[in-house]
Amino acid sequence: MNTKKKDIRSLTKEQLRDFFVKNGDKAFRGNQVYEWLWNKSLHTFEDMTNISLETRTMLKENFVINHIEVDSMQRSKDGTIKNGIRLHDGLIVESVLIPTEKRTTACVSSQVGCSLDCRFCATSRLKRMRNLNPDEIYDQVVAIDKQSQLYHNHRLTNIVFMGMGEPLMNYNNVIKSIDKITSSEGLGMSSKRITVSTSGVPKIIKKMADDQVKFNLAVSLHSAIDKVRTSIMPFNETFPLHDLAESLIYWYEKTQRHVTYEYVVWDGINDKKEDIKALINFCKHIPCKVNLIEYNPIDDGEFQQASSRAIDNYISNLEMHDIVVNVRRSRGKDIDAACGQLANKS
Ligand code: SAH
After folding, report:
1. How far apart are alpha carbons 137 and 194 in whole angstroms?
2. Whether 302 is catalytic
3. Whose CA is nearest to atom 7 of ligand 1?
4. pLDDT tens for residues 2-32?
5. Out of 118, 283, 288, 339, which one is annotated catalytic?
6. Measured between alpha carbons, how far is 13 from 186 in angstroms, rounded to an integer?
7. The whole model's pTM is what?
8. How far is CA 293 from the centre of its chain?
9. pLDDT confidence of residue 2
């Protein structure tokens, strides 16, 4: 691949229109090419059938269309599909198609590796290599949408940014990808069906509130006690719970939208009365719900899912305080496609 040529999808629609005008063509040509690139997800100039051969040749001389390839695909017995996605520079990320009765969800990656260091997550063992570009995130959704149509006869219904990486550490590109996913010039999906999950970067949560983003926010809380949270998510030292809470209050004030807390209960780590009490107090900050996630073991046995008694204890106490709580079963465990298991094992 000629690295000197620019990736045409790094251009905005305006820039593409300008390019054609500068080259003596009509601005409208930019719209046509833009539609091929995004709405139709074309990866070659040759197939742009309403563009003249001369223009296609000119485009080929000036640009490349960087794109992803599905490098490997594993199907779980529950229907979950894990994709190894090869990026244009050879790096690999993973994306997952998760079918349930009511919906089909794409779980996409936002970084190669991860900048964070959550001790229970397989991805954190890979160092962060780079951020994904907007088109690389968009392409994952397109690929999974195709699989959804192929295997489930309907389009993708939901998207979660819960694959590899910390989306708020790649905020600009994540936002650009969501703009394309929701735009009628892209996939035209509703932002209500998109959830961005973060370990909680307070400054960016506030920025999201200022930007009036329309997608859902999920925060991987796992503990509402600083000492405990720092021991399992060391980055909590830099962004402690007080700052996180403050940013969430700001979020709610500006957007009037609730937040979902993701929470795993581990044996001997956060299964005590005081852990539940702290969570209940944290939930008082803003309207929220709690998703209790099943723990997906990632090898050394250091972390173990708490007993069902401990989990029931959480549920009854939260409900007693009128906090909505859901228990989320894992999908795709047999192929290491569940939360926290994405680590390019292949
Ligand atoms: N960086 C983002 C998104 C990726 S992880 C974030 O932290 O939210 C998606 C979810 O899976 C997070 O809630 C994360 O805490 C959780 N998770 C990570 N490892 C896990 C594991 N081994 N078992 C269950 N959930 C895990």
Report:
1. 13
2. no
3. 199
4. 458 999 999 999 999 999 999 999 999 999 9
5. 339
6. 12
7. 0.94
8. 17
9. 46
